[in-house]
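The step that takes the researchers longest sounds almost clerical: writing a folded protein down as plain text. Below is the pair of lines this work produces for a single protein:

——
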Amino acid sequence: MSQAPPPLGTPVVRREGRDKVTGTARYAAEHTPPGCLYGWPVPATIARGRVRAIHTDEALAVPGVCAVLTHENAPRLKQLDDPILAVLQDDRVPHRGWHIALVVADTLDRARAGAEALRISYEPTGHDVLLTEDHPGLYTPKIVNGDYPAVRERGDADRAFVTAPVQVDVTYTLGALHNHPMEPHASTAQWTDDGGLTVIDASQGSTKVRDSLAIAFGLRPQQVTVVSEHVGGGFGSKGTPRPQTVLAAMAARHTGHPVKIALPRRQMAAVVGHRAPTVQHIRLGAELDGTLTSVTHEVVTQTSTIKEFVEQAAVPTRIMYGSDHSRTAHRVTALDVPSPSWMRAPGETPGLYALESAMDELASALGMDPVELRLRNDPVTEPDSGRPFSSRGLAACLEKGAARFGWYERDARPAVREEGPLLLGTGVAAATYPVYILASSASAHAAPDGSYLIRVNATDIGTGARTVLAQIAASVLETPVENVRIDIGNSELPDAPLAGGSSGTASWGWSVHKAATDLRRQLRERTGPLPAGGLTAFADTEQETSARSPYARHAFGAHFAEVAVDSRTGEVRVRRMLGVFAAGRILNPRTARSQFTGGMTMGIGMALTESSTMDPAFGDFTENDLASYHVPVCADVPDIEVDWIDEIDPHLNPMGSKGIGEIGIVGAAAAVGNAVRHATGVRLRSLPITPDTLLPYLL
C-alpha cells in the first residue's frame, strides 16, 4: 500500500469548496430563525448636524411594519469599545450615511417600504469633508495603525538630501478606496429566554464580535454566542463589529423576535470602513552609483470626528531600503467623513505605491535598471530598529522574478515599444508586509475510531483556513488529513484572534500545532485502548506570542507587470503579471496561489479602475455601488502568474510560515503604474490611471 504524501506543504483541495459551489454553505444572511423579522437601516442625508424630528406614523402604517427604532426609543447601550457602534443613542449626525433609524417588518420589502415612508427633519451645520495637504486641522498623532510611532528619524535626512548628487522630490495622491466584499455585511440576532444573545454575523472574527456585544449590552462574554461559519470576503471591513450587528441585537431585544439585517451595498461605503485618502511627499537622495543617502516619506491623511484611525503609510519605508538618513512621519486631520479602517494591507499598500513609484523615478534619473537599484539598497539589518531579519528574501524574489519574466530582455527606453497603436511597457515594484502572530487557543481530540477533531475559533473568509489547519494537525499527528475534522467559526470554541493582518494561519496554526503535539504525547504515553470519550488536549500560545522577537520578521515580494496602452483612447490593459514572494514555508500551494492571485488582482484594480470620490457639497462618496465603483473582472486580468522561493525561517512559529493574504497586493499597483510610465513616458502620480487622465498626455 502506497504511503500518503505528507499533509503539510501539499496542494490539498479546500474541504468546503463543494459546499460553496453547490450552495450548501450558508452565509450570515441565509440563516432565518422561526419568527424572524427584517430590519432596514436608515442613513442620514446630511453631512453634519442633528436630527430635529423623525415622524414614524406613516412608516408604522405600512403593512407588516412592527417597529421603528430611533434615538428616542432604541435600547440604551451600556458601554462601547468602538464609538462607531454608538448607533441610535442620540440625535447627532457626525457624517452622511450615519444610521439614524431602523425600520423592522415581517419582510424585507416591507421594511424597506417603511424606511422610505419615514419623514425626517434635520438641523444641519457646516461640514468639512475634503483633505488637503495644508489643511489647518492637521496634527501629528502619537501612534498610527499597528501601534507604530507616527514619526521616526535617523540622522539628518534634510541635510543629506540637499548634498545628494541625484535627487527625487515628488508627491503622490491617492483617493479613498472601499473593500466591497462580495457578501454584504449581515447579522441575525436572537435573544434567549435566559437573557443570552446569539448572533450569526458576517465577521472576520466572532470572538471580537462577542466581546464587543457583551460590553455594549452589559453581558458576560459567556452569555453571547457569535457564529461566523462562512464569510464571503471582508478584506478588513469585517475585522471588527459593524453597526448592523448592534442594530440587529437592539431590534431583537425591542421586538422580542429574531431580527436579520443585511446592509444594502449603497450604505456600506459610509459605515463599514474604507482606505483613507493620502497625500504622500517623498524625497530620495542618492549617490551616482544608486546608493540611497536620504529617504523622507511624509504622509498627510484623514480620519473621522468619531474615532482616530491613521493608516501607517510611511511605516514600510522604515524597513524597505537602507540609508543612513531617514525621516518618516504622519499627520492627520479629523473631518466630517465616515471612519476609515482596515483595507487589505493597510498602510503598506498606499505607502509602498508611493515609495516604489519614487524608486522607479530615481532609477530613471540615475539611468539605472530598477531591479539593480533595489538590489543595491537591500539592507542586511532592519534600518529602523537595527535588528537582524529572521529572513529577507527580497533579493531572491527580484532575481527569480526578473529571470522568469524576461526582464533584462526589455528595451529600457520609455515610449519606444509599439504594436500598431499600442504602446507597450514593463514595470517592477518590490513589496513587504510584517509578520503578525497573536495569541490563540485550540483543542485537539482523539476519538476511539481513530479520527481527530480540532476546535479553534478561527474564521474562514474564503482563504481555505479549514483546510490548512487540518493539514497542520495531520502533520503533527502523523495521520492522513482526511482523518482530521475542523470546527471553527463559533465563539463558543476556544478563543482565537480575527482573520486579519495576514496573521490568521500563523496564530491559529501555532495553537493547533501545540494542542496536537500535546495530544500526540498523550497518545504515545498511553497503553491500551482509548476511553469511550477519547482524549483531549488544550493549548494556548499566550506565553509564546507575548515575547518580543529579537528578529525583524517580514514577508517580501517582487511584482512584474507588462501593459499595453492604446494611444488613441488612453485605455490601459495589463497583458501579464508575475509575482514572486518570500513568505516562509508555503503550507498549501493551491490555496496560497489563490490568495496571492487575489491580492494582485486587487492591486490591478487600485492602479486602473477603483476610485471613490468625496462630494464636497453632500459629504458622501459618489461611487457607492459596484456599478460605479469598478473592480477588476476576469477580462481585466488575463495572465497572472504566481511563484515563490523556498524560504526556511526558524524564527517564526512551528510551521515556519508567514502571512500571505496581504503581501500579494502591496507592490502590485506600483508595478502597473511603472509599466504605464515605461510604455508612454508619462508619469501620473495619482491613481487610478484611467483613459481620461492619461489620454491628454498621448495626443
User: Anything to note?
Assistant: The longest strand covers residues 552-566. The radius of gyration is 26 Å. The chain has 18 helices and 28 strands. The chain has a mean pLDDT of 96.
